[in-house]
Specification:
It is built from 1 helix and 4 strands. It has one domain. The chain is 10% helix and 20% strand. The relative contact order is 0.37.
Length: 71
């Protein structure tokens, strides 16, 4: 997992790939693809290169789906 930041407000998010959205309702998809604080779309988030990768299951940031992590 990577860490990214919302450029509008600076909130740090744990970036997740798009399969996390599979089977979610429209409201939950919106919540996963927008900043938790200012609701900017995750497509605008910036990867934080200086941050170490997160281990699987390691939390501490709000989870967001970031488009560039699709594989």
């Amino acid at each position: 997992m990577k860490v990214c930041a919302c450029p509008a407000c600076g909130t740090v998010h744990e970036a997740a790939p798009s399969p996390v959205l599979d089977g979610l309702s429209e409201e939950r998809v919106y919540a996963r693809t927008h900043c938790k604080l200012c609701e900017s779309p995750s497509a605008h988030f910036v990867a934080l290169a200086d941050e170490p990768d997160l281990m699987d299951g390691e939390l501490g940031y709000p989870l967001a789906v970031v488009p560039w992590l699709r594989g």
